């Protein structure tokens, strides 16, 4: 660990810098209320009047969780579900898109600053990033392709440290350690060499032995944000990271294996060896980044353009093969914003732009000789291109009525070429017709503290490269993009001092050509379109400071919150060669999730945070013959903070799965032979140290 710290500060010492000193330490670092504004739709907007269903994680809410993973934080947002099959192996869904997640992220578009993390092939390596390198996450729920292109679940906007205008403490150190060999360190610095140039650096290392057999993981992560204001109204930003990670994959267990010994990795079965014997694992080295230029032209016009690229070296020793992937992605995004605020009663703005991405991937499969690359099996080269044009108008009348309309035209195509064993000298090209994605939304302030909203929009999500060319090594040219219309309405309420908050929405989304996952006996995946899905749901978030912070009492603050997700998702017109699944529950989606939290503030900056997560039973196959049991998950964290001159020291300790429940946090849906279950950790502990200078 000392070597990591010394190397970080040695790097910083070569630059003539002035460290941004911390302001006087705040007395309420952990206790601030949620901000009134959120970063969404190419700018900052008032949360109360925003005509969309939004989830927000700021620095305070992230601090309340363990810190080495985004999972518990994201799962506090209604309609959002993150799963972990093993340490480092995550799945993220918004409103049920886990239906088509082999691993990673599907139907969701993710951006870091003005640069997409999701590439042209639809892949998003969310597990490559370090959670502590980000200070705010905004989630736009429901299909929102009007500004962000192909998605049918929603959009995630992530703000890295150093990207926002407020000055943060100069240096920060986070250390934590916990059960099953968990160790995490994060070092960050914010520097300002001149009045026009400032930058941030983050370095993180995380490792874990894991609870199950074959679940060890590690990750090194370096991130930087460079900002140069070369004139009063113009800025160039460099945003980038390099991540190298590896995690072992234990594989799913049958119900009897799960009951007998949930710690075991998938054993050998018939002709197929087990996960330990084959040293099943994933290794991912990703370099991601880009330049963003932001210019204000006069008092009404702003232009933003970004150019970006990604390179990924991906290795996956699997039960039946050894896969290598080399992926390249290039793109740009540009838009103009015209704002007119001169009229007292009517203010409006227009956004118009384009985003283009192009990717190339060599996907090569070999024999897996107990973790070593063997003879050739199949090799293919895939090219993906996605681009879209977008136009958006929003206006506010009398500071009460907000209207938004938007439209995008989306193009995508892919081409494939076999490299071996039957090499082809040309690409086969698949180019579906372009798709229009409209959206309209309205919100109205009925009172200064209560707003009502309504919206409708179309979702569009083409198959990813991992679905067109999945692990069964067959090119599937018959997959169609998922499409559908989403209609929803909701309200927000908060009292004058933001002490009480409520946000609720109901929606109905009719998806067509839903893509579902199939797993063969040897674990190989394939995908098919499964007719339609009717998704109806309710999401609600309630929060209240029963005792406001800094009251002159022994309990100096008490906050209660409850987030509710109700999902009535059903297959519609879904048949295969043997069965009719119409009317069945959507695979992999719990019907109800309730997350409740209690945050208590004591004197001397001591606080306790308790959280309860109830998740109902989850159908594990399309036939609805097997379900994962419902579970109650309790976790708690104790924090103590001390200001010493210009330094803030925070100690913390926590327990996850306090009741020591046996549950599966990431199930393999539609698994052959009933190998659905991946046991989560039993009761586990952690300690943390945070120093701000």
From TrEMBL:
Pfam families: Plug, TonB_dep_Rec_b-barrel. Residues 1-21 form the signal peptide. PROSITE patterns: TONB_DEPENDENT_REC_3 (PS52016). Keywords: Cell outer membrane, Membrane, Receptor, Signal, TonB box, Transmembrane, Transmembrane beta strand, Transport. Residues 179-658 form the TonB-dependent receptor-like beta-barrel domain. It is found in: Cell outer membrane. Coiled coil: none annotated. Residues 49-155 form the TonB-dependent receptor plug domain. It is a multi-pass membrane protein. Its main location: membrane. PANTHER family: TONB-DEPENDENT OUTER MEMBRANE RECEPTOR (PTHR30069), TONB-DEPENDENT RECEPTOR YNCD-RELATED (PTHR30069:SF28). Belongs to the TonB-dependent receptor family. This is TonB-dependent receptor. It comes from Olivibacter ginsenosidimutans.
């Amino acid at each position: 660990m000392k070597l990591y710290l010394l190397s970080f500060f040695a790097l910083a010492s070569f630059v003539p810098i002035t460290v941004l000193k911390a302001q006087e330490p705040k007395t309420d670092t952990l206790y601030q209320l949620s901000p009134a504004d959120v970063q969404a739709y190419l700018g900052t907007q008032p949360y109360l009047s925003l005509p969309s269903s939004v989830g927000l994680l700021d620095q305070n809410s992230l601090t309340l969780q363990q810190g080495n993973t985004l999972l518990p934080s994201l799962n506090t947002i209604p309609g959002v579900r993150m799963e972990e099959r093993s340490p480092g192996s995550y799945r993220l869904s918004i409103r049920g898109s886990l239906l088509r997640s082999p691993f990673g992220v599907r139907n969701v578009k993710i951006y870091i600053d003005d640069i997409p993390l999701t590439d042209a092939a639809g892949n998003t390596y969310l597990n490559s990033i370090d959670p502590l390198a980000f200070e705010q996450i905004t989630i736009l729920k429901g299909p929102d392709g009007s500004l962000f292109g192909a998605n049918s679940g929603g959009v995630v906007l992530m703000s890295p440290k150093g990207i926002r205008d407020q000055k943060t403490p100069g240096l920060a150190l986070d250390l934590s350690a916990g059960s099953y060999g968990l160790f995490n360190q994060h070092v960050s610095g914010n520097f300002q060499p001149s009045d026009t140039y400032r930058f941030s650096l983050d370095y993180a290392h995380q490792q874990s032995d894991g609870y199950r057999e074959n679940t060890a993981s590690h990750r090194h992560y370096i991130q930087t944000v460079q900002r140069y204001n070369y004139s009063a109204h113009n800025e160039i930003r460099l945003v980038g990271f390099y991540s190298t990670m590896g995690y072992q994959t234990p594989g799913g267990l049958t119900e009897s294996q799960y009951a007998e010994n949930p710690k075991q990795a998938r054993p050998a079965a018939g002709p197929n060896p087990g996960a330990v014997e084959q040293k099943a694992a994933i290794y991912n080295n990703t370099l991601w980044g880009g330049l963003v230029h932001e210019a204000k032209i006069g008092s009404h016009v702003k232009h933003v353009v970004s150019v970006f690229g990604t390179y990924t070296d991906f290795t996956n020793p699997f039960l039946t093969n050894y896969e290598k992937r080399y992926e390249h992605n290039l793109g740009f995004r540009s838009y103009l914003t015209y704002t007119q605020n001169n009229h007292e009663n009517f203010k409006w703005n227009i956004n118009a732009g384009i985003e283009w991405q192009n990717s190339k991937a060599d996907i090569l499969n070999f024999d897996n000789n107990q973790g070593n690359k063997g003879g050739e099996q199949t090799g293919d080269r895939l090219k993906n291109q996605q681009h879209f044009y977008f136009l958006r108008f929003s206006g506010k009348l009398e500071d009460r009525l907000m209207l938004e309309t938007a439209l995008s035209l989306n193009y995508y195509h892919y081409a494939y070429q076999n490299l071996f064993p039957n090499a082809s000298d040309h690409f086969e090209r698949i180019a579906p017709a372009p798709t229009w994605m409209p959206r309209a939304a309205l919100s109205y302030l009925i009172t200064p503290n209560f707003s009502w909203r309504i919206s409708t929009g179309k979702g569009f999500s083409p198959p990813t490269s991992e679905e067109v060319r999945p692990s069964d090594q067959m090119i599937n040219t018959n997959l169609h993009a998922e499409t559908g219309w989403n209609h929803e309405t909701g309200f927000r309420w908060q009292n004058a001092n933001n002490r009480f908050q409520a946000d609720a929405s109901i929606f109905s989304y009719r998806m067509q050509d839903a893509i579902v996952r199939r797993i063969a006996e040897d674990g190989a995946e394939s995908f098919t379109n499964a007719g339609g899905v009717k998704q109806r749901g309710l999401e609600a978030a309630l929060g209240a400071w029963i005792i406001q912070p800094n009251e002159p009492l022994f309990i100096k603050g008490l906050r209660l919150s409850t987030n509710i997700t109700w999902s009535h998702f059903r297959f519609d017109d879904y048949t295969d060669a043997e069965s009719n699944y119409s009317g069945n529950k959507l695979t992999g989606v719990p019907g109800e999730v309730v997350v409740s939290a209690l945050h208590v503030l004591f004197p001397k900056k001591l606080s306790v945070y308790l959280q309860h997560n109830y998740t109902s039973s989850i159908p594990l196959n399309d036939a609805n013959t097997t379900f994962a049991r419902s579970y109650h998950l309790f976790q708690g964290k104790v924090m103590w903070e001390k200001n010493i001159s210009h330094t803030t020291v925070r100690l913390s300790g926590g327990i996850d799965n306090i009741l020591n429940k046996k549950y599966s946090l990431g199930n393999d849906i539609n698994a052959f032979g009933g190998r659905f279950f991946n046991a989560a950790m039993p009761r586990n502990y952690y300690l943390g140290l945070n120093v701000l200078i």
